[in-house]
Write a structure and sequence with these properties.
The structure is a single chain. The longest helix is centred in the first third of the chain and has 31 residues. The chain is mainly alpha-helical and 233 residues long. The protein is extended and about 85 Å long. A two-stranded antiparallel sheet has the order 1-2. The chain has a domain of 143 residues. A hairpin with a 2-residue loop joins β3 and β4.
């Protein structure tokens, strides 16, 4: 007879505090798995899997340490990119590895967007513009920026995430993410060019200024048409 060992003593109440969404519908099944038993072969297999996981984690740590050593001279540009919500050290290193720390190779932000494959195409027929894919470019950089864009879109009460959700109302999610990735690359280009960190307040101030100009333009148009417009205090 195989020797069985109890693997846990988790209560149903404490488990429910950890579960979310659809997982709550499987509380009994999860509880049974947590408080089940393991045979000797199962324990040996689990021990090997944990040892393999530890080896992978050690290898990953070694690679990350080597990357940090290789990028020690680029701590300034890395910190600039890291100031953008949604970009961590790993993403910053990957982006810098593709575009460099100086923007001397790209005369304008439009050039780097075209090089990255994030510039919109120009498909026009009979005087009508049609939907098209973005131009070909650096797929690796494009993938990184799109992944960062998905992270930014999940944030709340931020300028970039708000920009994404406003755009998504007029198009689909994938196109909005690509547009956000392009906007993100323009911001990165400007930051590296001017050596200025990301500042949420500047975007909010610019948004308020744009909205104020739009309101004034509408008021002037209504006044020109003969309407009396009274602005709230």
């Amino acid at each position: 007879m195989q020797q069985l060992v109890q693997v846990g003593s988790v209560s149903e109440q404490s488990l429910k505090l950890c579960l979310k969404g659809r997982a709550r519908q499987k509380t009994a099944e999860i509880l049974s798995s947590l408080n089940g038993t393991l045979s000797l072969p199962q324990r040996q297999l689990l021990k090997m899997q944990l040892a393999h996981l530890k080896d992978l984690q050690d290898n990953l740590q070694e690679v990350e340490d080597q990357i940090r050593r290789d990028f020690s001279q680029f701590e300034g540009p890395r910190d600039l990119l890291d100031s953008i919500p949604g970009i961590d050290h790993t993403a910053a290193y990957a982006i810098l590895a593709e575009i460099g720390s100086t923007m001397s190779a790209f005369p304008t932000a439009q050039h780097i967007c075209a090089w990255a494959g994030l510039a919109p195409g120009n498909h026009e027929s009979a005087g009508k513009k049609k939907k098209q894919r973005v131009t070909p470019g650096n797929d690796y950089l494009k993938t990184i920026l799109c992944e960062v864009a998905w992270v930014i879109a999940s944030h709340k009460n931020q300028y970039l995430s708000g920009w994404y959700w406003r755009l998504k109302q007029r198009t689909d999610a994938k196109r909005a993410i690509v547009a956000l990735a392009r906007k993100l690359l323009v911001i990165i280009y400007t930051m590296l060019k001017t050596n200025q960190p990301f500042d949420e307040r500047k975007f909010l101030e610019r948004t308020e200024t744009t909205n104020r100009k739009r309101v004034n333009r509408m008021v002037n148009e209504l006044t020109r048409l003969g309407f009396a417009v009274t602005m709230p205090a």
